[in-house]
Backbone:
C-alpha cells in the first residue's frame, strides 16, 4: 500500500509535469491493481478520480487543455520537422497557445502522413513498430511507434481495464483483427501479459475456425471488427450455435460502423450483455472513445484534445451540426510520430453537453461515428445521408445480410442504392421500399448478383487470411 | 512496593491496555469500514518500509527538542485519530474531539502533575488518546490488506529490534524516561503512589494487529487463540519478567522490558501453526462477506462507468 502510493505519486507527478512516464512503474501499478482486486474484490472508492482525473470542472479542464497543448506543441516544435515548419508558417507563439489560438494552425490530414511520413518522426525518439492503416479509404498510411509508446499504451490500457473490471486474470481474449494490424495485435498481447490473462490472436480467418476456437470454452472476451462480427454471427446461426455454446462475457468492436441490429444479434447469439462500440484510430492512438448506455460517443479528455469542426465551415461545430473529429494526442502519450490537430474525417453530430444525462455526462460526447466525411451524400442543403444510416437500414433487413454490402450514389437528385439480390430476400418490392422509407431513406433500389456484393462496399473482414485448416493435405492422405 | 506488587501493577496496567486496544480494534474491524485508496494493498515491501520507519523514528525522537517532539507527536496523533474517527462522526465533531484530546494532554501535563491524582488524570486522558490511535492504525493496516503473515513476521523482526534497542542501544528505555511527564506520551500507563507502570503504544499496536489479523484470516477461534497469546506473552510474561530477570533495570532503576522480544516468537509460532492447520488466509473480501462482520458490507461498490481508455481495440483504418 505504501509502495503503491509512492508509485501513484510518481506517475501523477509525471503527468502533471508532462514528463515521459516510467513504464516499468506503470507495469508494477497494474500488478498492484490486480493484487488490490484479489484482496478486496474491487478497487477503492475514489477509483473514478484515478481513471478520469479531476476534469469535470470546465475551468480546470480548460487550464489542463491549454497546458497540455503548449507542452505538446513545444516538443513538436523542437523535434518534429513537419510541425516546426507548420508552426512557423502559422506564426503562433507556443507559450501563449490555447484552445482559441489553436485554430490558426491548419489541421493535419492523412495525405500529409502519406506524402511526408519521414517528417513526422521526432528526432529524439527511436522507431520500434510500424503499423499500416488497412487502406480501405485509399492509400495506406504508415505509423511508427516507439518501444516507450507500446509499453505505455499497453500499461495504461491494462490499468484502466483492470480497475474497471473489464478484464480479469482468468479471461482469455480472442483477437479477430487483421494480423497486419500490428499495433493492435501487439498491444493486445502486451496488455494480456500485464493483466496475466490469455491472448489468442487468430486474425481474420474463415469464420468457422474462429467459431471453433470460441466454442472450446476458454475464450471469454472477443475483440474484432463489426464486419467480421457479422460473419461470425451468420456462421454461428448457420451451425445452430447459441448462447450455451459460448463462455463469452463481452465483445469489443471498432474501426467500422456497428449497427444496432448486428449488435443485438451478436448479444443474442453469443449470450453476451455487452457489445462495445469503441472508437479508436491508429493515427491518434491513444485517444479513444466509448459508447455509453445512452448511445453517446464519449471522447477521452485526459490523453488528448478532441475538437469538433463543422464540415462546412471548419469552425467549431454548433450542437446538432455534422462535424469532423479532429484530435491532438498530448505528450507524453505519443512520442515517435505524433500528430497535432489530426483530422480523422470521421463524422459525428455535436451534442450539447448540458443535455447529457448518461452515466458519464461530465465528459463531452457526440453521436456515434456516422461515417467518413467523403462518404456523406448530400441530397440538398440540409438533407444528408450518412453511411451509418445506410448500414443501419441494410443490416436491419429481414435477410440479415451481415456485413452490409451496398453502394449508394446520387443520381438525378435521388439516392440510388445498389444491393445484392439476396439482401431483399423475404421482402416484396414494395416491402423493400417501405423498409427504407421507415428509416427516412427515399431510395431507388438496384439489385446486383450476389457474387458482386463484396465489390460494392469493401469491409475489413474482406482481408481474409488463408489457413491450412480447411484445406486437404497434399501429401500423406 | 515489593517486586511482586510492582509486577501485579504492571500486569494490571498492561493487561488493561492490551485488552482495551485489542478488543477496541476487533470491534472496530467488525463494524466500521475505513476508506482505502483506489489501488493498493499491504505487501511485504510495505512491512520493510514500516520497519525502517520504526528503526529511525525513535532516533529522531531522541534527537528532537521537546517542543519539536510535542509538535511532531501532535501531528501524528491528529492523523491517527482523524483516520479512525472519520467514518464515525462528522468533520466538526471529529476535529473538536481531536483538538480536545491533544490539547487536553498538553494542558494536563503542564498543569496537573503536582499530585498523584493529577498524574492519574493525565494518564487517563493520555490512555484514551493512545488506545484510540492504536485502534485506528491497526485497522488502517489490516483493512488496507495487511495479512496475518505480515503481522507475524513483523512481530518476529520487532522481537530482535526490541531486544537490541533495549539492551545494546537503549534508545527505547531512554525515550520512555524522556517522555514521562511530557505531553502526548505515546504510552498507556497509570500511576500508583510513586510508581508509574506503562506499556508503549507500539506494543499495543502489535497486539491489536495480531488479534485482528488472526481474526480476519481465520475467524473466531483464531481470534481467541491470539487474545490468549497476547495475555500470556504480551502481558503476563512482560509483567513477571522483572521477578526473574534483572538485566532490564536501567541506570535510573526503572525497569524496561522489551515486550516484543517475549511476544514476537510466540506470535510467529502461532501463525505457523494456524497456517498449517487452517491453510490460506481469508482475503478482506471473504472476511467482509462472512458472518464475522457485524454489519455486513452494504451493496457492492458500483463499478466505474465505462469510459474512454485505450483498451486494445481492433485496428482502425
Residues:
Amino acid at each position: 500500500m505504501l509502495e503503491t502510493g509512492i508509485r501513484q505519486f510518481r506517475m501523477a507527478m509525471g503527468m502533471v509535469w508532462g514528463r515521459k512516464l516510467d513504464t516499468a512503474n506503470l507495469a508494477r501499478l497494474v500488478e498492484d491493481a490486480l493484487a488490490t482486486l484479489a484482496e478486496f474484490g474491487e478497487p477503492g472508492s475514489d477509483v473514478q478520480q484515478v481513471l478520469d482525473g479531476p476534469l469535470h470542472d470546465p475551468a480546470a479542464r480548460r487550464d489542463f487543455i491549454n497546458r497540455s497543448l503548449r507542452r505538446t506543441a513545444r516538443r513538436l516544435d523542437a523535434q518534429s520537422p513537419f510541425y516546426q515548419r507548420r508552426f512557423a508558417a502559422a506564426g503562433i507563439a507556443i507559450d501563449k497557445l490555447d484552445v482559441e489560438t489553436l485554430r490558426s494552425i491548419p489541421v493535419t490530414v492523412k495525405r500529409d502522413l502519406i506524402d511526408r511520413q519521414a517528417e513526422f518522426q521526432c528526432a529524439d525518439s527511436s522507431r520500434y513498430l510500424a503499423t499500416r492503416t488497412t487502406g480501405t479509404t485509399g492509400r495506406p498510411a504508415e505509423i511508427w511507434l516507439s518501444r516507450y509508446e507500446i509499453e505505455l499504451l499497453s500499461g495504461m490500457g491494462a490499468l484502466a481495464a483492470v480497475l474497471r473490471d473489464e478484464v480479469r486474470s482468468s479471461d482469455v481474449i480472442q483477437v479477430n483483427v487483421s494480423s497486419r494490424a500490428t499495433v493492435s495485435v501487439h498491444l493486445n498481447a502486451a496488455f494480456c501479459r500485464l493483466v496475466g490473462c490469455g491472448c489468442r490472436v487468430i486474425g481474420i480467418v474463415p469464420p468457422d475456425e474462429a467459431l471453433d476456437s470460441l466454442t472450446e470454452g476458454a475464450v471469454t472476451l472477443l475483440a474484432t471488427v463489426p464486419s467480421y462480427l457479422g460473419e461470425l454471427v451468420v456462421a454461428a446461426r448457420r451451425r445452430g450455435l447459441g448462447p450455451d455454446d459460448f463462455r463469452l462475457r463481452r465483445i469489443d468492436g471498432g474501426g467500422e460502423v456497428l449497427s444496432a441490429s448486428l449488435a443485438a444479434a451478436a448479444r443474442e447469439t453469443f449470450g453476451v450483455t455487452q457489445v462495445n462500440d469503441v472508437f479508436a484510430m491508429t493515427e491518434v492512438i491513444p485517444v479513444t472513445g466509448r459508447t455509453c448506455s445512452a448511445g453517446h460517443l464519449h471522447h477521452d479528455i485526459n490523453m488528448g484534445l478532441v475538437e469538433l469542426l463543422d464540415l462546412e465551415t471548419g469552425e467549431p461545430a454548433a450542437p446538432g451540426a455534422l462535424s469532423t473529429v479532429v484530435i491532438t494526442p498530448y505528450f507524453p502519450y505519443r512520442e515517435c510520430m505524433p500528430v497535432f490537430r489530426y483530422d480523422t474525417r470521421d463524422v459525428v453530430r455535436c451534442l450539447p453537453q448540458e443535455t447529457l444525462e448518461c452515466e458519464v455526462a461530465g465528459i463531452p460526447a457526440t453521436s456515434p461515428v456516422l461515417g467518413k466525411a467523403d462518404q456523406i451524400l448530400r441530397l440538398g442543403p440540409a438533407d444528408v445521408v450518412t453511411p451509418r444510416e445506410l448500414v443501419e437500414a441494410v443490416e436491419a433487413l429481414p435477410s440479415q445480410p451481415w456485413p452490409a454490402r451496398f453502394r449508394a450514389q446520387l443520381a438525378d437528385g435521388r439516392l440510388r442504392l445498389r444491393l445484392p439480390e439476396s439482401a431483399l430476400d423475404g421482402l416484396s418490392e414494395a416491402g423493400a421500399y417501405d423498409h427504407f422509407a421507415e428509416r427516412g431513406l427515399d431510395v431507388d433500389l438496384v439489385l446486383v448478383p450476389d457474387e458482386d456484393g463484396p465489390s460494392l462496399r469493401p469491409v475489413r473482414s474482406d482481408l481474409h487470411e488463408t489457413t491450412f485448416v480447411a484445406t486437404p493435405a497434399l501429401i500423406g492422405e | 512496593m515489593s517486586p511482586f506488587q510492582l509486577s501485579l501493577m504492571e500486569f494490571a496496567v498492561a493487561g488493561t491496555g492490551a485488552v482495551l486496544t485489542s478488543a477496541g480494534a476487533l470491534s472496530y474491524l467488525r463494524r466500521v469500514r475505513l476508506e482505502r485508496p483506489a489501488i493498493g494493498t499491504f505487501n511485504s515491501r510495505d512491512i520493510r518500509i514500516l520497519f525502517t520507519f520504526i528503526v529511525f523514528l525513535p532516533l529522531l525522537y531522541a534527537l528532537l527538542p521537546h517542543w519539536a517532539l510535542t509538535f511532531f507527536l501532535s501531528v501524528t496523533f491528529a492523523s491517527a485519530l482523524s483516520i479512525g474517527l472519520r467514518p464515525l462522526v462528522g468533520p466538526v465533531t471529529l476535529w473538536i474531539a481531536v483538538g480536545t484530546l491533544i490539547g487536553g494532554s498538553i494542558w494536563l501535563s503542564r498543569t496537573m502533575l503536582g499530585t498523584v491524582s493529577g498524574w492519574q488524570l493525565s494518564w487517563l486522558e493520555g490512555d484514551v488518546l493512545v488506545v484510540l490511535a492504536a485502534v485506528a492504525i491497526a485497522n488502517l493496516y489490516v483493512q488496507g490488506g495487511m495479512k496475518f503473515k505480515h503481522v507475524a513476521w513483523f512481530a518476529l523482526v520487532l522481537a530482535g529490534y526490541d531486544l537490541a534497542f533495549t539492551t545494546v542501544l537503549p534508545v527505547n528505555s531512554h525515550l520512555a524516561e524522556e517522555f514521562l511527564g511530557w505531553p502526548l506520551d505515546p504510552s498507556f500507563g497509570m500511576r500508583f503512589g510513586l510508581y508509574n507502570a506503562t506499556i508503549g503504544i507500539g506494543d499495543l499496536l502489535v497486539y491489536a494487529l495480531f488479534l485482528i489479523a488472526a481474526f480476519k484470516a481465520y475467524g473466531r477461534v483464531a481470534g481467541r487463540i491470539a487474545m490468549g497469546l497476547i495475555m500470556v506473552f504480551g502481558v503476563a510474561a512482560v509483567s513477571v519478567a522483572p521477578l526473574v530477570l534483572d538485566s532490564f533495570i536501567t541506570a535510573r532503576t526503572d525497569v524496561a522490558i522489551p515486550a516484543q522480544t517475549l511476544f514476537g516468537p510466540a506470535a510467529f509460532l502461532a501463525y505457523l501453526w494456524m497456517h498449517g492447520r487452517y491453510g490460506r488466509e481469508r482475503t478482506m473480501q471473504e472476511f467482509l462477506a462472512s458472518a464475522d462482520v457485524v454489519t455486513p458490507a452494504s451493496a457492492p461498490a458500483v463499478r466505474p462507468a465505462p469510459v474512454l481508455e485505450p483498451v486494445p481495440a481492433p485496428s482502425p483504418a
About this structure: The first strand of chain A starts at residue 129 and ends at 132. Chain A touches chain B through 81 residues (CB under 8 Å).
